[in-house]
Amino acid sequence: MRKKLLIPALAIIFALSGCGYDGHYRYACQNPENFEKAECQVPLCKVTGTCTIDLLGFDPLTGEELTVETEQDVQE
Question: What confidence category does residue 3 fall into, taking pLDDT thresholds of 50, 70 and 90?
Fold first, then answer.
């Protein structure tokens, strides 16, 4: 019984071991080398939704945090 569970478990472990971090960024604007590039600056990045402030939650160049207004904030 243990062999029947061990073989699939090992296969899953080996398959998932290739899913690690490979040193690449999902979006170009997440890479610190690209923070200053035109494609990561407003208005170009707003079109694609890849602005650094939107991806990270803060602007790494100014330290400004992203604030999102909620309905509760608007009502107050």
Answer: confident
